UniProtKB/TrEMBL annotation:
Source organism of this protein record: Polaribacter aestuariivivens
Species lineage: Bacteria, Pseudomonadati, Bacteroidota, Flavobacteriia, Flavobacteriales
GO molecular function: chorismate mutase activity; transferase activity
Gene Ontology BP term (one): chorismate metabolic process
Enzyme class: isomerase
Protein name: chorismate mutase
Length: 360
């Protein structure tokens, strides 16, 4: 992908004075439900009305969407409210139907992005379209897979492109349905700074109470927009009930969000920002230096263990370190989750070092 600036023309042309907003129910359930939500969203910041009509469900036996029938409902949304529409496509047949029915924006779901076969099938079916296509991150935190999917679309001549960050699934329990792994989204922005990036706080949180906070973090990180699942009766939604908000709540969220500009002309602000960034750079350098030193000591321990023929991993000692560091971290405002993650990574690197030494 060479000229990534052209990929955001569709967004720049909208000349929005707020982040792009995509909202609407997780699933289209009935014609009445779709139209009621659309009318309630009509006079708001919402730019695109979403509704899933083909629903990927983790286990069979759940509501799998109304299918092509819903495309007619989306047409009515456009006619009656003037809002543009979007839906998820997961294979060539979906693409064909969505294009025939003039859906304005198509997105590719997390369960499709993981499969290069599916991505290629969708890219081939979309070849040369001028519709907007957004690619959700794959369910697993694999940046290359995400970028690869976008590249397949680009190669198929699709130039109105963007990405949606919807978090990543993990085996470990967390307060999120899909953990955001913000550093991965930041890496994504560094690779393709011009590609529009939208945050989907609904699927990240899985819980409507946390949507505002995650949305604010996304805007603070210069995301271009939000996709938020919206339903007039969230608790009785046929899918993703816990994470949907009412249209009224959505409007409140949009009103309360602080929209920060990427570039600030005020020079006092720039100076303090530059200064703080410089401080961060210095501290980061020190962190690397200290970690290098720590690894040097771990190497010496490795030599000793080799001499005495002792196992690399000694879990009692490790649990002791962890307990102390969690307490120490707490007193400095670091969450247990972060301290655990960081020390697991450091410990793994020490084990790798020591294994190398012991195996010679
Ligand atoms: C959705 O947007 O309703 C959906 C199924 O999302 P994801 O692909 O992120 O799970
Ligand atoms: Mn959903």
């Amino acid at each position: 992908m060479k000229n990534t600036k052209e990929l955001r023309t569709w967004l720049d042309d909208m000349k929005l004075d707020h982040p792009l907003v995509i909202a609407g129910p997780c699933s289209a359930e009935t014609e009445e439900q779709v139209l009621k939500i659309a009318h309630e969203l009509k006079d708001s910041d919402v730019n695109y009305f979403r509704a899933g009509i083909w629903k990927p469900r983790t286990r069979p036996g759940n509501f799998e969407g109304v299918g092509a029938l819903g495309l007619g409902w989306l047409k009515k949304v456009k006619e009656q409210t003037g809002m543009k529409t979007c839906t998820e496509v997961a294979n060539a047949a979906h693409v064909k139907l969505a294009l025939e029915n003039d859906v304005d924006l198509l997105w590719i779901g997390a369960r499709s992005t993981v499969s290069p076969f599916i991505m290629q099938e969708i890219a081939d079916a979309l070849e040369g379209t001028d519709k907007i296509v957004l690619v959700k991150n794959p369910v697993n935190p694999d940046l290359a897979l995400w970028l690869g999917g976008i590249e397949r679309l680009y190669t198929a001549g699709i130039k109105n492109l963007g990405a949606i960050h919807r978090g990543f699934s993990t085996y470990e329990k967390s307060k999120y349905r899909n953990i955001p792994e913000w550093q991965l989204a930041i890496e994504f922005q560094n690779k393709f700074p011009d590609l529009p990036l939208i945050c989907d706080p609904s699927h990240i949180t899985g819980n409507r109470e946390m949507i505002f906070d995650v949305s604010q973090t996304a805007l603070d990180l210069n995301f271009d927009g939000l996709m938020i699942e919206t339903h007039f009766d969230p608790d009785n939604a046929w899918s993703d009930a816990a994470q949907q908000v009412t249209p009224t709540k959505l409007k409140q969220i949009m009103e309360d969000l602080k929209i920060r500009k990427e570039t600030e002309t005020d020079s006092g602000y720039r100076d303090s920002l530059d200064n703080l960034r410089a401080q961060i750079n210095v501290i980061d350098g020190q962190l690397i230096e200290m970690l290098g030193k720590r690894m040097g000591v771990a190497d010496k321990i490795g030599e000793l263990k080799k001499e005495k023929n002792v196992a690399v991993l000694q879990s009692r000692r490790w649990n002791e370190i962890l307990g102390n560091m969690i307490l120490e971290g707490e007193s400095r405002g670091l969450s247990e989750e972060f301290v655990l993650k960081m020390f697991k990574a450091i410990h793994q690197e020490s084990i790798n070092h020591q294994e190398k030494i012991i195996k010679g």
